[in-house]
Every structure is written in structure tokens, then in C-alpha cells.
Amino acid sequence: MLVDSHCHLDFDTFQPELDAVVQRARDAGVKTCVSIGTKLDKFPGVLAVAERFPDVWCSVGVHPHEAEGELLDNAEILIEHAKHPKVVGIGETGLDYYYEHSPRGQQIVNFRHHIEAARQTGLPLVVHTRDADDDTISVLNEEMARAPFTGLLHCFTGTRRLCEAALNLGFSISVSGIATFKNSGELRDTLKDVPSDRLLVETDAPYLAPMPHRGKRNEPSFVVHTAAMLAGLKGMTPENLAATTTDNFFRLFTKVQRPQ
Fold it and tell me: Mean pLDDT of all residues in the chain?
């Protein structure tokens, strides 16, 4: 069994064949998927997908790209949505200074409110960070010093310093198809040193399809390719890697019901 810990099944590209996409995931051994929220005004659609399938769950959050359009005053709306039994994570949230679609200050404000929601609900924080290592580390350290929370760095592509900082906070590291790309040797070197009990796998579908599907629309069934690469990198059998990352997922996402 594998878990796709981060995908976007509510996106329009999946709607004409969503049932088939989910079935292909099941056929590939991907028995659980988490469809991730990126905008509050799109959350009803995210939740509808999770309610439609017993093996699909979801998160609620505002992507850093959307911070200017959905700037939060507090954590209350996130906490309220998180009461739904299908909502199992907070985010994705974080900082993206590569595109800077929203001002940095507003991204940080939203990031802190998401952390408070994760803290109050006990749900894991799903962190997106790109070209923002210093501020991401600073915010996470400051907030963890105030009161604890759990979480992961999704689609990790950052520096070894960022990885070590996250691990020191008790966070997990989620690996996407980017790690299978030929030019990702430095990333693989970092991932090789991540303790196996802190690793998750994901697709970030419909983005970032792994080799050999690079350039195509990604989907949850493709997580098997990322898992196979990671197994080889860690010197594990594919079966052991699948069991380990699946156990790690359910230890972090405690609200998700494990399939029998």
C-alpha cells in the first residue's frame, strides 16, 4: 500500500475522469489520497471530492500565492472547517518568494494563522516553501517555541539546511516526482540522509509528474515511480519503502482512517 499525501483532485483537469483517476490509483496500490486546499473560496469543491470517495481526504488552507486575495485575520475559519471529519490537515500554507504572487508580509501573516490552526486542532501543518528558507525556518522556530504543532514540508526541493531545520522541529519530509528528475542529484543527496521514519511520498498532481511520465499531467497512481526511486536511494525494497512511508503518513495524519 502507498499513500499520495498531497494532490489536487478538485482541479478542473481531473473532473471529466475523476472516477477513473481514483480507480487507477487504487489499482496501483495507492489506497489513500489527501486532496489539498489552496483557497478558501474553492474549499467546498475540495471537500466535495473528499466526501465522494472513501479513500480520499482533504485539507483546508490558503496557498501563499493566494495570501493577498485571502488574507486572514485569525485562525478561526480554518479551525471551523477542520471540524469536518474529512478534513485531516491544515494548509497548504507557507512562503513562496520565487514567484511572489502575494507580498511577503501577507504570506507570513497567513502562515502564522495556519500554524495556530494546526496547533489548536492537532492536525498536521502542510508547508509549501520555495526560495524562502530563512523566513520559513525563522517562523517555524518562533512558533514552535511558543507551543508545539506537527507538520511536514511538502514537495521538498530545498536546501540541506532547511531539511535539517525541519527535522529538528520534528517535521516530516514529503518527496515528489521532482526527486526523480535527472538534474535533481543534489536533492537526492539530501533525501538520502533523511531518516526513513520521517519520509512521505506525494504527487502534487496534476503537477510535477515523475519519470517516466515527466511533462504529462500527473495523477496519484504515478506516486509508485517516486516511491520506487526513493526505495533505491534508501537501499530498501519497494515493499519496505511502501510500508514505511505509509506508516509514517498515518502516524502524522492521525485523523485519517487506515484502510482495512
Answer: 98
Distance CA(248)–CA(256), nearest Å, equals: 12
- Per-residue confidence band for 77, with pLDDT thresholds at 50, 70 and 90: very high
* Grid cell in block for residue 201: 511520498
Rounded to an integer, what distance in angstroms lies between the CA atom of residue 146 and that of residue 152?
18
What domains appear along the chain, each with residue ranges and CATH number? 2-252 (3.20.20.140)
Cα angle for residues 98, 169, 186 (degrees, 5° grid): 50
The Cα 171–Cα 191 span in angstroms is 14
DSSP classification of residue 177: G
Are 21 and 9 in contact, with CB atoms under 8 Å apart? yes
Burial 50-77 (b: 16+ CB within 10 A, else e): beebebbbbbbbbbbbbbeebbbeebeb
C-alpha 121/C-alpha 90 separation (Å) is 9
**How far does Cα 259 stand from its chain's mean position?**
20
Separation between Cα atoms, residue 254 and residue 186, nearest integer Å: 32
- Residue 77 CA to residue 43 CA, distance in Å, equals 11
Report the amino acid identity of residue 64. Answer: P
In whole angstroms, give the CA distance from residue 174 to residue 246: 12
d(CA 153, CA 202): 11
Question: What confidence score (pLDDT) does residue 137 get?
Answer: 98
Burial class (CB in 10 A: 0-12, 13-18, 19+), 7: buried
pLDDT at 207: 98
Helix (H, G, I), strand (E, B) or coil at 127: strand
